[in-house]
Structure formats: structure tokens, C-alpha cells
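Incident review: delayed structure delivery

Summary: a single-chain prediction request sat in the queue longer than the usual turnaround. Root cause was a stuck worker, restarted by the on-call engineer. No data loss occurred. The affected request and its eventual output are reproduced below so the record is complete for anyone auditing the incident later.

Affected input:
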Amino acid sequence: MSTTTQPGAPTADKWYKVDRLGGLRRFAIAITVFNIVGHLWLGFEQSWAQPLVGLAAAYTMELLMELIDCWQTKRRPRFLDGGVQKFIDFFLPAQISGLACSMLLYANDRLMPIAFAAAVAIASKHVLRTKMGNGTRHFLNPSNFGITMTLLLFPWVGIAMPYHFTENLTGIGNVLLPCFIIVSGSFLNIRYTRRWPLLVTWLGCFVAQALLRHWILGTSLTAALMPMSGVAFILFTFYMVTDPPTTPSSTKAQIMFGASVAAAYGLLMVSHIVFGLFFGLTIVCSIRGLYLYAIARAAGRHREQSEATAQPSAPAPHMVAPAGRAAPEPVMSGRAD
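Output delivered after worker restart:
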């Protein structure tokens, strides 16, 4: 689910220059309304305290990380530059992550796992970063990473049951809600995030891995495709796997990313590992982050070597010519040192 970036993030991606803030505002409003409607009418089984705790933890961590960065870089906090609107915009990522973690996790009546997931989600986008362009960008989907770490560290915590998104709906309502999410999510990913190639590839490859498991391993095709019928899968597809800051922007790279997430999910299912959607996305984002880190390191070394080679070398003491004689030409060794 979308989150913000730090100052100095690359501006080559049109989403960052034009559509980022609009997408964040719309998504923050949508997930807030969805949570309110879910707790009032749809049948969300978590208590009202859990989204409030998730929001409190996310807001607190966002504020803490910003103040630490301001102290290190000697700059003014971003939430103080620009009045009320800038202040609200600063906390949009915390709003999204706090509600996403509390909505998708089920910890019975416990509050601490929800707070932990939201805090880890926000901290990850400040700490786990790699160089991109002229700045840095987080490479892990924050909400997904917070959920992943909570599932790993708290084995008794699970994912919210699919039925609770439509538990109190009957008749055509069971169809209208998923259709509304699909239409709004498609509009968001086509108009704002520009991640529709990733979206189409992910869905197509998810069906492909289900067919392969059916043909090769004898897995029930109905069971393999069943996750696609749930609202949780729809939310994951349209609002998490397509998160712009943590996914590539080029069409070819988007296709590779979507196919990789589907392949990781299939391998996790074959290995009998549950929560494959969240674990698979974390694995692919981590591999992409390591790749970007390696590219940045190689580019940095190349730049340092180029700068060192371009610097003029002073003549060695033993090559200073005696009076009246020309100095011999130095022999170039080709080394930067």
C-alpha cells in the first residue's frame, strides 16, 4: 500500500512528480471510509480499538523517524512547512499503513501485535532504503512488511478471514462490493500509479501458477484459484502489490515484478507455507532491493574511479629533469591510484 518518500527521491518517475500526492490522498480517504463502513456494517471482526491503536502507532513512528532525521540533517520538519494541508499530507502514509495492518491482521482481542505491525511498517520505509537516482527510496512495501514480520514473530496471529469483509451483506451486495473495489482500484492504477502492466501480469501469472500446480502436482484447480474470489485478494491486488514507491516504473520491469510475485507465491504453496501472498511480495521486494543496492554500489565505484582517473598526476620526484634537459615522458600504468 502506498507510502511517501523522503526528500531527494528521484523525480524521473512521473508518479513522483505529478500523481503521487493525489494518489495518496485518494487512497487514504478510501481506506478510511472502508474501515468505518466495515466496522459499522460489513462485519469487520476486530474491535474498534485495533484500528485506533494501529493509527496511533503509525503516527507516532512517523513523527519519531522524521524528528530523528531532522536532528541528523539539521533541517526543519516537513510537517511544519506549508500550513495545515502540508501537515495532513505528511501523515497520509501513516494513515494508510495503520489502517491496512489493523484491517488485514487478526489478533483476537490483542492490541500489541497491531501496534507492532504498524510501527514496523513505518520504520521500514525510513530505515530500509537504497539509492535511486539522486536520492534514496524504500524498497519494501511498508504495510506488507509490517504484516509479514508480525506473522513471523507472532505465530498465533493470522490474516483476517475473507468472509468478514462481506459478512453482513446479502444477495447482490456480495457482488457489488468486490466490483466497486475492482473498478476503483483499476482507475487508481491506470490513472495515477501507472502500474496496470504489473497488475495484468500478476493476475495472469497467478492463474498460470494455479494451472501448473494442477497439471503437475494434481492440486485441485478450484482450490488453487479460490483465493482470487476473496475481497482480501482483491485488496492485495489493487492496493498492495502495485504500490508505486516499491515497484518498478518501466513496463518490462513491471511485467517481471508481477510474474516474480506470482512465482514466489506458487513456490511457497508447493512448500506448504501459508500466507504466501504477503511472504511472496516481501521476498520479491527484498531481492529487488538487493539488486538496486548492488547497482548503486557498482555505479558509485565506477564514478570514483572515473574521477580519480580524470585528476592530473603530479610528476614523480625521480622524473624531475636536471637543469637544461627535458624531462622524460612518464609511463602511464592505467591505474587510478
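Verification: Residues 14-166+174-301 form one domain.
Action items: add queue-age alerting; document worker restart procedure.
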